[in-house]
Amino acid sequence: MYMWTRAVPAVLSALAIAALSGCSGSGTPTTGDKESGGQMTYRLGEASPPQKHTMQKYKGGTFTVTPTKVETGTKADLEASGLQLDASDVSKIPVYVSATLTHKSGKAMAIGDLDDDLVVRTNKDERSRSLVVLMGQAKWPNCPAVDFEKLLRSGQSESICSVFLIPEGQKPATVELTQGFTSAPLEWSVNN
Question: Could you tell me the pTM of the whole model?
Answer without folding.
Answer: 0.78
